[in-house]
Write a structure and sequence with these properties.
The complex is a heterodimer of chains A (281) and B (310). With 281 residues, chain A is α/β, with parallel strands linked by helices. In chain A, 13% of the residues lie in helices and 23% in strands. Chain B starts with a strand and ends with a strand. Classes of the chains: A alpha/beta (281), B alpha+beta (310).
């Protein structure tokens, strides 16, 4: 465990004067914890082994259990039919899996996942992929509010428009929206990148600590602490590559997107997130 | 939490009783306390009045309530006759719930006030097409109780209630009729934080409230604005600025259905729109209950007001 020095950058910034001791937010992991970033108990799956699940006459718990059981049998590709906009479908999948959902999900679909690649042909309700750690979720149609709330990693892509508070409390990863996003998107954003190809509603990036938001259309208004920043060559390269992955583009070109970042630095906000650490390792 | 739903067939009519029952039953988990329907049938020349004579709970634990209900019923009949309203049809949906079809050419507000002057009597709705039904229990129970599954009409709104701000009773259930205006009803999901100040202001202007439920304020507010000359859309747009809190609400009139969402967009709403039919609900699963096949839906945005005309 690292020792907190008696003087700190935050003192220089004038944010506080107290002396921190022992374990604080300054230390929340160390290199030896790397083993904790995998799930040793999870089954190995074969992506070439596939199965179909028809959710038409099943409840949400049974569908989620069946997905888990198929993975325990080594199935690596699952086609889910007739999801019927049920809430809480396909949650807690913690390893590699190709999941193709033919239809729409209700609230909290694909939450708490860490690794699967999910394609959804329909729409998703509120809080899709909440707390996602890794993997990809691609939605062909629209999404509800609090899309990608508190995600820490992976790519979350909606090719249509989304509701308000997109990426609230985002802690990492990438959120891409093909259309418009509503008010308070990026609210309390802490890490990661958000790419909005259409318009953004009022109070974009309100109270954001860190992270970057790119907007291709108009911004109705910036929130507290959110400020415009200059697009760099690195931004353009990253956006071009990332959007190409999902066959998406912005009408005016990525070089003309607006870039929004946090306008102030928090004194205790200088450590990597666990998922970022995972990538480093 | 509460769940709200609405639908409108822009031309023609359909079995809206069954459709709204299915939608509200799909939203049962959002509010198990009571369920309400505002159904718009084919408008005729008569006024349709839905009148409540007692709370459901009173019929279970009060000794003399059955005699009181009979007295109240007789009082309603007598006052309708006294005011010159001709009763063309009358049904008892339950012991305490009446449905009248009346011909009346006089001052409707005065008639309703006179009926409600009988202790325990509440006129839940009045209009040429609107029928407002609400009671304790889920949509299946209420629909069965009031025989709504064959109800034909053009549009409807409905509500499943989780009581948070007021009692579990019929009076506090939604929808609310925008007294004294024919055929205007409201359902709401959310909380109004300036309820008391707005209520006092509206009461000072002569409006009456029947409950302590904040959702009733929206119905009264809309009625008050329409009375001052606003169109439905103007009244709803103004409400976004003047009503404080988090809310999504639906309003129906004889010819229109509208939705409004507060500026924080904190309460959900999912919309499906086609050329001749529009459906909306707190959750897509309600729309799916009448559209089992794949459809395109979307969320309206913060501060948005939409009105669909028939």
């Amino acid at each position: 465990m690292a020792t907190v020095s008696s003087s700190h950058q935050s003192h220089e910034m004038g944010l506080h004067s107290e002396q921190l001791t022992d374990r604080t937010q300054q230390v929340f992991f160390n290199a030896e914890e790397s083993a904790n970033f995998t799930y040793a108990w999870l089954p190995e799956v074969d992506i070439n082994k596939s199965a179909d699940v028809d959710a038409a006459d099943m409840d949400v718990k049974d569908v989620n259990i069946q997905i888990r059981e198929l993975m325990e049998q080594g199935v690596g590709t699952i086609n889910l039919h007739n999801p019927g906009s049920m809430h809480g479908l396909c949650v807690g999948i913690l390893s590699r899996l190709q999941l193709n959902i033919h239809g729409s999900l209700g609230y909290f679909g694909c939450g708490l996942i860490d690794g699967p690649n999910v394609n959804i042909s329909g729409r998703v309700g509120w809080s899709c992929a909440e707390n996602m750690m890794a993997g990809t979720v691609v939605i062909e149609k629209n999404a509800g509010s609090t899309f990608g709330a508190a995600i820490r990693g992976g790519d979350l892509v909606c090719k249509g428009s989304v509701g308000s508070r997109t990426g609230i409390d985002q802690k990492g990863g990438t959120i891409i929206v093909g259309g418009k996003t509503g008010a308070f998107s990026g609210f309390m954003m802490q890490r990661g990148r958000m790419v909005i190809l259409g318009d953004a509603g009022m109070n974009l990036g309100d109270s954001m600590y860190d992270g970057t938001i790119y907007v291709g259309g108009d911004i109705e208004g910036l929130g507290v602490d959110a400020v415009p920043a200059e697009m760099t060559e690195l931004d353009i390269q990253w956006l071009t590559a990332k959007l190409a992955l999902y066959g998406m583009k912005t009408p005016n070109g990525v070089e003309n997107m607006q870039k929004i970042v946090a306008g102030k630095q928090l004194w205790n906000y200088d450590n990597l997130e666990p998922t970022e650490k995972k990538l480093v390792l | 939490m509460c769940g709200i739903a609405g639908l409108i067939h822009k031309a023609g009519s359909a079995n809206i009783g069954s459709e709204m029952t299915a939608m509200l039953q799909a939203l049962k988990h959002r509010g198990p306390d009571s369920t309400g329907f505002a159904l718009y049938g084919s408008p005729g020349g008569d006024h349709i009045m839905r009148i409540n004579l007692a709370e459901q709970a009173d019929t279970l634990d009060s000794f003399d309530i059955h005699a009181l209900i009979k007295q109240r019923h007789a009082g309603v009949d007598a006052r309708l006759q006294e005011m010159g309203a001709k009763v063309n049809a009358q049904e008892n949906a339950t012991e305490y719930s009446l449905r009248y079809e009346v011909s009346y050419g006089g001052d409707l507000k005065r008639l309703i006030d006179y009926l409600e002057d009988i202790e325990g009597v509440e006129v839940m709705s009045c209009g040429h097409g609107l029928e407002l039904i609400k009671d304790l229990g889920d949509a299946g129970v209420v629909s069965e109780q009031y025989k709504l599954n064959g109800f034909g009409g053009s549009h409807a709104i409905g509500h499943t209630r989780m009581a948070t701000e007021s009692d579990v009773d019929i009076r506090s259930a939604h929808p609310y009729w925008a007294y004294p205006f024919n055929d205007v009803s409201v359902v709401h999901n959310g909380q109004l934080t300036n309820y008391w100040t707005s209520r006092r202001e509206l009461e000072r202007q002569g409006n009456r409230f029947n409950s302590n439920c904040d959702s009733e304020l929206i119905a009264v507010y809309i009625a008050n604005r329409i009375n001052k000359g606003d169109t439905l859309e103007e009244a709803m747009t103004r409400s976004i600025e003047e009503l404080d809190g988090v809310f999504t609400y639906l309003v129906a009139t004889s010819e229109a259905l509208g939705m409004a969402k507060d500026v924080m967009a904190a309460k959900p709403m999912v919309l499906f729109e086609s050329d001749d039919f529009i459906a909306m609900a707190s959750e897509e699963v309600a729309i799916r209950s009448i559209f089992p096949h794949e459809i395109d839906t979307f969320d309206p945005y913060e501060g948005e007001v939409r009105v669909w005309q028939r």
